[in-house]
Amino acid sequence: MTTLVLDLKGNVSRKVAKLKEMRKQRGVTLLEIIIVLGIIGVIAAGVVILAQRAFTAQDITDTINNTNSVRTAMEEAYKDAGEYPADNDPYSLTKTNITDTPTSTSAAIQMLVSLGKVSADEAFNSFSNDAFQIGGVQTSSSSSGNKGFYLLINGLDSETCRNYISQIGAKWDYVAVVKGTAGKSISAPVTNLSGATGTDVLKTLTADNLNVTSIAQTCTNDGDSNIIVMGSR
């Protein structure tokens, strides 16, 4: 009888020990799963950030190429006209209707497409998908006629705005930042291409303060309300 009781106690002890071991194994397995999921989450977050940066970099490259094409096209189209055209609102334009026959009050960017100077794709800003707003402007307060022009790049957050200026600003005659909403016309973003620089005016025909520090201190508008004003003569 004593032997039987001891055997039963031994079996129970072994089963209890086995049960405890199984519970430990399950606990370790759950912990391992949590760790793996955490690692996957960190990797996924990193991939998303890298993808966002890649998309932004591509948009910057595309917009730089487009604005370079538009700048050249403006110079070619209006070199014999004596001055650049007035700023007519381009924000009703799409990649479909921009190829319609323009009128005397059509936006300059539509004129360039009609003349075959730029393609419909090149006429648009990759960030906001708006057609470029362009307008003639005086080169100085004492000059006559609109011998220069400005081009707006809207829909930019602060980092993208600064990144864009750092890449292309030195190649333009005038660089400034104003606040505005994508899809809406900005009235007289610049009166002439000369004058002093400041926090949001980094470069003019008569002054140049375009450097790392000045770029880092501009483009401070909320969200994507930063608009770069690029000027050329």
UniProtKB/TrEMBL annotation:
Q: Which residues cross the membrane?
A: 28-51
Q: Name one GO cellular component term.
A: pilus
Any single GO BP term: protein secretion by the type II secretion system
Topology versus the membrane, per the UniProt entry?
Answer: Single-pass membrane protein
Coiled coil (UniProt feature) = none
Q: Which domain of life is it from?
A: Bacteria
Chief site of localization: membrane
The record's subcellular locations are: Membrane
**UniProt keyword terms in alphabetical order:** Membrane, Methylation, Transmembrane, Transmembrane helix
InterPro entries noted in UniProt:
N_methyl_site, Pilin-like, TcpA
Membrane keyword on record: yes
A Pfam family per the record:
N_methyl
Q: What is the name of this protein?
A: Toxin co-regulated pilin A
